[in-house]
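## retry 2 of 3
previous attempt timed out at serialization; input unchanged, resubmitting
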Amino acid sequence: MSFSYGPPKDIQEMTALLRSAVDRGITFFDTAEVYGPFLNEELVGEALAPFREQVVIATKFGFDISPSVAR
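## retry succeeded, writing output
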């Protein structure tokens, strides 16, 4: 949503996509600080906040992300 496939996508569209996935029964979401960096985790966290008791969000961490890397 924010890494590897071109520029970050529209936040409202991606929020709607994630919430639609929950509506269809998806409950496990995987992200990482490196996607963006940080942008994808923020998007997933905010989009799924209303479902915090219904979903699991996994993340990968420990990357050495330099502050000089453009976001």
